[in-house]
Amino acid sequence: MAGVPVNVTDRLIAALEDAGLAVGDGQPRNAGGPLTGRYVVVRPRQVMRGEGSIGDPNADRQPELQITSVGPSRRAADQVAELADRVALGPMPAPDGCAWQQAAVYVTGTATTTEPTTDPTAPESTTWFRVDVYRYYLTPA
Fold first, then answer.
1. How far, in Å, CA of 66 to CA of 53, rounded?
2. Between the CA of residue 121 and those of 14, 45, 70, 117, what are the distances in Å?
3. Helices first, then strands: H and E counts in the chain
């Protein structure tokens, strides 16, 4: 990926991994390897633009990132979500070509809940998850 600009999603994933969280990329809940048990999945959402200068009114961006925190129990999912929250709202290097305009904010989230087993012929243990959304404010560097 040499030469590919690092965006805010890349920065958040790196920060989550640095904090010791396993980060998945949409793997199913019964994925093998390091994603069994406790992990997070980061998904980019909408990117709002605007508030730039007269010459470049859409220069500033406000991307939203969704973090789904997963665990084998309610407590585990909450612990993962709380650590992910501290990371998501904490200091991170700015994406390539950008500067932080202001601190990140928590936008919305869901209660911690279970994901039902969809295949009764292949029962598996209950998976708990919580979804939280954060907004980042970027301006050109």
1. 28
2. 38, 34, 23, 10
3. 2, 6
Residues 6+ apart with CB under 8 A from 120: none
CA distance 71 to 75: 8
- Give 33's DSSP letter: G
Over its length of 141 residues, how does the chain's per-residue pLDDT go in tens digits?
Answer: 456 778 999 999 999 999 999 898 655 545 454 456 789 999 998 777 666 677 777 788 899 999 999 988 899 999 999 999 999 999 999 999 999 999 999 999 999 998 766 666 655 667 889 999 999 999 988
Provide the whole-model pTM. 0.83
